[in-house]
Specification:
With 388 residues, the protein is mostly beta strands. It contains two helices and 21 strands. Strands 1-2-3-5-6-7-8-11-12-15-16-17-18-19-20-21 form a 16-stranded antiparallel barrel. A four-stranded antiparallel β-sheet has the order 9-10-13-14, with no helix packed on it. A hairpin with a 2-residue loop joins β11 and β12. It is globular and about 60 Å long. The protein starts with a helix and ends with a strand.
Length: 388
C-alpha cells in the first residue's frame, strides 16, 4: 500500500513523465506526430471555410533527479500547422511555432506522505499573432479535435501546490491543493481594416483542489481522481488605432473526474478500462451574470492494453468513444461539439536504455458548430522515444 500512496501523490502533484523511474539521474522523452483532419463539409471560420487541418508536432520532456527526494522536469513542443481552406478561398493558413516551456520541481518534504510542487512557465512560445496566424490557433485550440499541440505562447506564470497521502482501511487516499498565477501577454498583433490592432490579456489566477483514491478489487486495481478548478477574473484590452476597449470575464468553475480499472489477466500484459469526464459551468461577464450557453462538458470512455512479456517487443492498442458538447453561446470551430470514435494500434520496442513506440490512430466523428455540421475523419501517425 505504501507504493500506492506514492503513486497517488505523484498523480496529484506532477506530470506523467515525472512518475517514471530514472535509470541514472536523467530521463528524456521525445516524440514526432503527424495529425490530419478532413471535413466532408467545410466549416465556417468568419469569412473563410476550413476543409482540413494538418499538424507536425515534436513534443519533448526532460527530467532530472535532484538528491534523493526531488526531481525537476521540463516540457515543451515545436509544431508546424496548416489549415486548408475550401476551394477558391486562397492559400492555406500556416504557422510554425514554439510552445512555452513548463518547468516543474516536485519533492517530498518532512515525510514520504507530503509532496510539494513548484512550477514556472517560460514564455518562449509564439504570441503577437497576425490575423491569419490567429485563425490557425482558433482551429488547433478546439478541444473537439484533440490536436497534439493546441496552444503556443501564454505568457510568464508560475504556481505552487501541496499534496498529502494517507491510508483508510483498504483505500489509499491523497488530497492536494495548488495555485497558478499567469502573467499578462499579447496574443494578437495584426492589421484589421487597415488599422493597427493589438490585444492584451491579463488572465486571472487558478485554484485547484483534488482528491485521489486507489484500492484493490480482488486481483484488479481501481483508481479515481476528482478535481475542481476555480478561476479568477480575466481582463482583455483591444486597441484599434488609438481606441482601447476593455472587457472582463470570469470562467466558470470546472469539475473533472477520471477513473480506471487495471484488469489482471493472463492474456494481457497490461489491460485497462477508463473514463474521464469534465464539466465547466457558464462564465460570467462584467456584470456578474452568467452567459447562457457558455457551459459545456466532455466525456471519454475507452480501453487499452498490450500483450507479450514485460521487457520484450509487444503490440498495444486502444479504443475510445469521445463526446464533447461544445459551447452553444459561441458556435465556432474553437468551441465545436464532437461525437467521435478512436482506434489506435502500435508496437513497443524496448531496450535496456529506451522505449520506442510507433503508432497509428484513426478517428471517425461528426463535428457540429451550430448552423453547420460535418463528418470528420482524422489520422495520427506517431513515433515516441523515451529514455530510461
Amino acid at each position: 500500500m505504501k507504493a500506492a500512496v506514492g503513486v497517488l501523490l505523484v498523480t496529484l502533484a506532477s506530470s506523467a513523465l515525472a512518475a517514471q523511474p530514472l535509470a541514472d539521474r536523467l530521463a528524456t522523452a521525445s516524440a514526432v506526430s503527424f495529425t490530419t483532419w478532413r471535413f466532408a463539409t467545410p466549416l465556417g471560420l468568419d469569412s473563410a471555410a476550413v476543409s482540413s487541418v494538418q499538424q507536425l508536432a515534436v513534443p519533448y520532456s526532460f527530467r532530472v533527479a535532484v538528491g534523493s527526494s526531488w526531481s525537476v522536469d521540463a516540457t515543451g513542443a515545436i509544431s508546424r500547422t496548416s489549415v486548408g481552406l475550401a476551394s477558391g478561398q486562397g492559400d492555406a493558413r500556416e504557422l510554425t511555432a514554439l510552445s512555452d516551456v513548463r518547468v516543474r520541481a516536485v519533492g517530498r518534504v518532512f515525510s514520504d506522505r507530503l509532496l510539494a510542487t513548484f512550477s514556472a512557465n517560460l514564455p518562449i512560445g509564439a504570441t503577437g499573432l497576425s490575423a491569419e496566424e490567429l485563425d490557425v490557433l482558433r482551429v488547433v485550440a478546439a478541444p473537439a479535435l484533440q490536436m497534439p499541440v493546441a496552444g503556443f505562447g501564454t505568457g510568464a506564470g508560475g504556481g505552487a501546490g501541496m499534496a498529502y497521502a494517507w491510508q483508510a482501511g483498504s483505500w489509499s487516499l491523497a488530497t492536494g491543493a495548488s495555485y497558478e498565477y499567469r502573467g499578462a501577454y499579447q496574443p494578437v498583433e495584426a492589421r484589421i481594416l487597415g488599422a493597427s490592432t493589438t490585444a492584451d490579456l491579463q488572465p486571472g489566477g487558478t485554484v485547484r483542489a483534488s482528491l485521489a483514491a486507489d484500492r484493490l478489487l480482488g486481483e484488479h486495481r481501481f483508481s479515481v481522481l476528482m478535481a475542481v478548478d476555480v478561476f479568477g477574473q480575466d481582463r482583455f484590452d483591444v486597441r484599434v488605432g488609438g481606441l482601447t476597449t476593455r472587457s472582463t470575464y470570469t470562467l466558470g468553475p470546472m469539475v473533472s473526474v477520471a477513473g480506471q480499472l487495471e484488469v489482471a489477466s493472463t492474456h494481457f500484459r497490461d489491460a485497462r478500462i477508463y473514463f474521464s469526464e469534465r464539466s465547466r459551468l457558464p462564465y460570467t461577464g462584467r456584470d456578474g451574470a452568467a452567459v447562457r450557453g457558455s457551459g459545456g462538458s466532455s466525456l471519454e470512455v475507452g480501453a487499452m492494453g498490450s500483450v507479450g512479456r514485460t521487457g520484450r517487443p509487444a503490440p498495444f492498442g486502444s479504443v475510445a468513444l469521445h463526446f464533447d458538447s461544445g459551447l452553444a453561446s459561441d458556435p465556432s470551430i474553437t468551441t465545436a461539439a464532437m461525437t467521435m470514435a478512436r482506434v489506435q494500434v502500435g508496437y513497443e520496442l524496448p531496450s535496456r536504455r529506451s522505449l520506442f513506440r510507433p503508432s497509428l490512430g484513426l478517428n471517425f466523428g461528426r463535428i457540429d458548430i451550430g448552423e453547420q455540421a460535418s463528418a470528420a475523419v482524422g489520422v495520427q501517425l506517431g513515433l515516441s522515444l523515451r529514455g530510461r
